[in-house]
Amino acid sequence: MTSKANHPRLTIGTRGSPLALAQTHETRDRLAAAWPELAAEGAIAVQIIQTTGDMVQNRPLAEIGGKGLFTKELDESMLDGRIDLAVHSMKDVPTVLPDGIVLPCVLPREDVRDAFLSLKAKSLDELPAGAVIGSASLRRGAQILNKRPDLKVVNFRGNVQSRLRKLEEGVVDATLLAMAGLNRLGLSHHATSALATDFMLPAVAQGAIGITCRADDEQAHTFLAALNCPETMVRITAERAFLLTLDGSCRTPIAALAELDGDDLSFRGLIVSPDGRTIHATTRRGKAADAEAMGKDAGEELKRIAGPGFFEQKA
Fold first, then answer.
1. Are strands 44-48 and 10-14 parallel, antiparallel or unpaired?
2. Domain 230-315, what architecture?
3. Could you list the active site residues?
4. Are 240 and 204 within 8 A, CB to CB?
5. Do the beta carbons of residue 134 and residue 141 sit within 8 Å?
6. First and final CA of the chain: distance in angstroms?
7. CB atoms within 10 A of CB 20
8. What is the C-alpha separation between 49 and 86, in angstroms, rounded?
9. 1-108+208-228 with 114-195: one CATH topology?
10. C-beta separation of 199 from 270 below 8 A
11. Residue 62, CB half-sphere, CA atoms under 13 Å: how many?
12. Sequence-distant (≥ 6) Cβ neighbours of residue 101 within 8 angstroms
């Protein structure tokens, strides 16, 4: 007779990168701590699923289809019933989810800042003219060029470890990574400095882990309800509403950050032309309950100011 322990109660799908696995293990541990039946050996299975975004490393994301490339195969596995949950970096999750999939849970948000990494300079300001910065993010690249048009930004993809290795090999003079990812991997000592958010506004939902499930999976909803962080959910709701209104993708340099103080929500958002020459920014203050409306209103304002064709500009 086979024991129930050999049949997982939940199967979590994840990408295979060290950061994705660290985030999935955090999710698994939180589930086991919240629910005794999930603490038993074998109660939670982890299934690694390779995504298109992981397989194609030599081209910018914008060229191969944008953000959904890190979630598509996970979504398909969930809808097919092969996995029950999927763990994502929220900044990789498209603003519109596939039919039948919902996002009921986000974990407490990590450090939202970008990290500056260089073996040749202590800060972006200290880099010499013509220095090469590697970045896979149009948002980071555009904000860098806005501040330092004399620098050269090149496409620089791969997981955190491979980017650190390329930096050490001198492929680029500097790079930027999310502080959250470095912290979760125990690699924060590699950061030369953390960039203040008023200097480099982060990506929408940067530092947040999101967990999706099927809309009709009552068991998954029950398990995840114990893990959801309401404060993080409010903040990313404002930011994702801003992104959705601007129809943001990996082709569009968009940044936003919502911060909560009790029930008071403050929001900052900006859009930058890919070449960094033009920047439009806005702010909002309101209540947590109005998070979605605030983000949408801010996005509509910048859409009006920028005018048609703003994001079609080339760097």
1. parallel
2. 2-Layer Sandwich (3.30)
3. 92
4. yes
5. no
6. 64
7. 25
8. 10
9. yes
10. no
11. 16
12. 75, 78, 79, 212, 213, 214, 215
Out of 3-7, 147-151, 161-165, 262-266, which region has the weakest mean confidence (pLDDT)? 3-7
What is Dmax (Cα atoms) for the chain? 70
The strand pairing partners of 264, in sequence order, are 261, 287
For 261, phi and psi rounded to 5 degrees? -130, 95
Q: Is the pLDDT of residue 156 over 60?
A: yes
Domain residue ranges of the chain, discontinuous segments joined by +: 1-108+208-228, 114-195, 230-315
Dist CA 236 CA 36 (whole Å): 30
User: In the prediction, which pLDDT does 6 show?
Assistant: 58
SS3 46: strand
The 10s digit of each residue's pLDDT in 20-79 is: 999 999 999 999 999 999 999 999 999 999 866 554 555 555 554 555 666 889 999 999
Residue ranges of alpha helices (H) inside the chain are 18-34, 52-55, 61-64, 72-79, 138-147, 160-168, 179-184, 218-225, 230-245, 291-306
What phi and psi, each to the nearest 5 degrees, are found at residue 44? -120, 125
Q: How many residues does the chain have?
A: 315
Compute the distance between CA of residue 187 and CA of residue 184 in angstroms, rounded to an integer. Answer: 8
Instruction: Report, at the CATH architecture level, how domain 114-195 is classified.
Output: 3-Layer(aba) Sandwich (3.40)
Per the CB < 8 A criterion, the answer to whether 218 and 233 are in contact is no
DSSP 76-101: HHHHTTS-SEEEEEGGGS-SSPPTTE
The span from the CA of 35 to the CA of 115, in Å, is 35
Alpha-carbon distance of 147 to 188, in angstroms, equals 25
Query: Which 3 state secondary structure label does DSSP give 111?
Result: coil
Structure tokens at 13: 């799908």
Residue identified by tokens 């809309």 is: 215
